[in-house]
């Protein structure tokens, strides 16, 4: 028999866990982790240069310097699995003061996610930048680990419900705690890697960057998982103490 307090805590923990999973899943699948605001097109020469960047971005080979320059100068957005540009539909970009903009996106393939980063982006002779390489790899692996831990916790919890046992609740809480830490580490790795990229890349003038809503969703999912973990651990510990007291009373 489960006390109403423990049942309420378990229900709230399940809701928090579900919200955290939805938020993190949306964050991983969208590209608005970081957004660049670029200056407008000034002349035909400038427009021709930007067209070349756009073509290399969409059709060219994968190169960090190429796609980074395109993101900087074409109002780019970047996520864990996507990189996108905002470009006008009209070929004569500079002739319209406010052209209609469309978004063109290219996904990172799995092999590209494991591509090493170099101390000078685009220069393979400059040597591998170990820190940026592993920050990049961790930022897309950690959210998958986080989602996997939550799914594992859900499976264990479902089996516990079938068996009508609260014994695995402590373990489920620890799984959610690890999931929350992985979500938080994902955001930290992304921001650290982005800061290091900006240090080794030359940002054009009048280019500003802002954090996107996808990153905030991933950030919110972390405390939600931790709150769910705290409720699960509390329910497991409190129920265990009550069970031991009841057992001792019956023996006495």
From TrEMBL:
GO terms for cellular component: membrane. Keywords: Membrane, Transmembrane, Transmembrane helix. It is a multi-pass membrane protein. The chain crosses the membrane at residues 140-163, 170-193, 213-236. It is found in: Membrane. InterPro entries: CLDN1, PMP22/EMP/MP20/Claudin. Gene3D superfamilies: 1.20.140.150. This is Claudin domain containing 1a. It comes from Electrophorus electricus (Electric eel).
């Amino acid at each position: 028999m489960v006390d109403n307090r423990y049942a309420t805590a378990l229900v709230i923990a399940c809701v928090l866990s579900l919200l955290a999973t939805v938020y993190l899943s949306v964050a991983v699948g969208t590209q608005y982790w970081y957004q660049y605001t670029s200056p407008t097109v000034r002349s035909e020469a400038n427009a021709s240069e930007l067209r070349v960047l756009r073509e290399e971005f969409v059709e060219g080979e994968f190169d960090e310097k190429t796609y980074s320059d395109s993101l900087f100068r074409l109002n780019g957005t970047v996520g864990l699995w996507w990189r996108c540009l905002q470009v006008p539909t009209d070929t004569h970009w500079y002739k319209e003061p406010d052209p209609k903009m469309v978004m063109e996106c290219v996904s990172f393939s799995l092999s590209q996610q494991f591509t090493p980063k170099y101390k000078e982006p685009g220069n393979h002779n400059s040597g591998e930048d170990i820190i940026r390489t592993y920050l990049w790899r961790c930022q897309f692996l950690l959210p998958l680990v986080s989602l996997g831990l939550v799914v594992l916790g859900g499976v264990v919890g479902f089996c516990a419900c079938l068996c009508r046992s609260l014994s695995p609740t402590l373990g489920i809480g620890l799984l959610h705690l690890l999931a929350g830490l992985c979500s938080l580490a994902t955001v930290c790795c992304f921001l650290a890697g982005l800061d290091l990229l900006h240090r080794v890349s030359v940002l054009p003038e009048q280019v500003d960057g802002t954090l996107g809503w996808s990153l905030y969703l991933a950030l919110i999912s972390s405390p939600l998982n931790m709150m769910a973990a705290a409720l699960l651990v509390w329910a497991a510990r409190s129920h265990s103490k009550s069970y031991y007291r009841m057992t001792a009373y019956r023996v006495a």
